[in-house]
Amino acid sequence: MRIVSIINASSSSGFCHGQNFSYDGDQGPLHWGEEYHSCIGKYQSPINIEEHNVKNVSLSPLRLIGIDNPYQSYVTNTGHTVMLKTNESKAATLSGGPLQDNYVFEQLHFHWGENDYEGSEDLVNNHSFPMEMHAVFYKEDYKSFNEALNHSDGLAILAYLYEVSPQPNPAYEPIVRVLRDIEVMGKRKALQEPLLLESLFVPDIAKMQDYFTYFGSLTTPPCLEVARWIDFKDRQQLSHEQLAAFRDLQTPEGDKLTHNFRPVQPLEDRVVFHNIPKEQNTLSNTHHSDGHSGQRNVKIPILFVALGALVAIFLFAI
Ligand SMILES: [Zn+2]
């Protein structure tokens, strides 16, 4: 089984150093660290994001450039996920927010579960979602995805969480439609029409600046700790049928890839930041920018009211 999983048609994906793994059994996530030492590192992904334990910040706007061009794209079954890449030489770029530099789009892919109640990698307040999409960007200065993997600021990854809805989401239909053609590992298929990355990356521009961000790792071997994660709070919608189509893809062994999410890892001493868009933050700016969490901010005014009441009682008493 090991030999089969090493032979992989998607070596150009950049994740080629880490193809020898699975989501179950003796090659499952609990054993990744035996072969890939970074997988037992201190700053691993995914994590559980506790909303009461984030640090509120207001960063400069996140910017996505070049996503309104229609790109010729193709999807590949890597044996571990469905990966989408574009054929264009001028790739989309990401900058702003927590990023110091420009990042270039490399690929996007999905994580899902056996049913509609689990499948996301990051959790929010211990809640799992049926799917998560990762859009992977590498730092432009490093020239290539593979070189970027050697640097702690090498990657920026946009993460999108999904909910089940009664209606199919038309933005994902071009991808879902070709899944049946790539059920076997290594199969690759061009999308029938050019893809607008904007429809996937910015489903609602009004909610684009509302996200969590933290430092972590690739969620698959070799688990390198090189990623600035940006997890959007806005949820996207997919129908049960659209989600189910992903579960028909096959693993390197020819089994159904019913789930491909890694369990959450310890946060350790990391801080998860919550970006609050500036315009929403003007009223309570002094509280948000002083480094207290959202919960503390609520407590401070209550404390003042309580103190005021005590002083009033004291004055009446004398
Ligand atoms: Zn991923």
Low-confidence stretches: 1-17, 282-300
Total DSSP helices: 9
By helix and strand content, what is the structural category?
Answer: alpha+beta
How many domains would you count in the coordinates? 2
* CATH 4th-level superfamily of the largest domain: Alpha carbonic anhydrase
* Proportion of residues in helical segments: 10-25%
N/C terminus separation: 84 Å
| Chain-averaged pLDDT | 88
CATH architecture of the largest domain: Roll
CATH class type of the largest domain? Alpha Beta
Task: Explain what this protein looks like in three dimensions.
With 318 residues, the protein is α+β, with helices and mostly antiparallel strands. The chain folds into two domains: 2-282, Alpha carbonic anhydrase (Carbonic Anhydrase II), CATH 3.10.200.10; 285-318. The chain is 20% helix and 26% strand. The protein has nine helices and 16 strands. The chain has helices at residues 2-6, 32-35, 145-148, 173-178, 197-201, 240-246, 278-281, 285-288, 294-317, and strands at 48-49, 54-57, 63-65, 70-71, 73-77, 82-86, 93-95, 103-112, 123-124, 131-139, 155-165, 188-190, 195-196, 211-216, 227-239, 272-275. The strands form three sheets. Strands 2, 3, 5, 6, 7, 8, 10, 11, 12, 14, 15 and 16 form a twelve-stranded mixed β-sheet that branches. Strand 7 (93-95) and strand 8 (103-112) form a beta hairpin. The model is unreliable at 1-17 and 282-300 (pLDDT under 50). It binds zinc ion. Zinc ion binds at residues 109, 111, 134, 219.
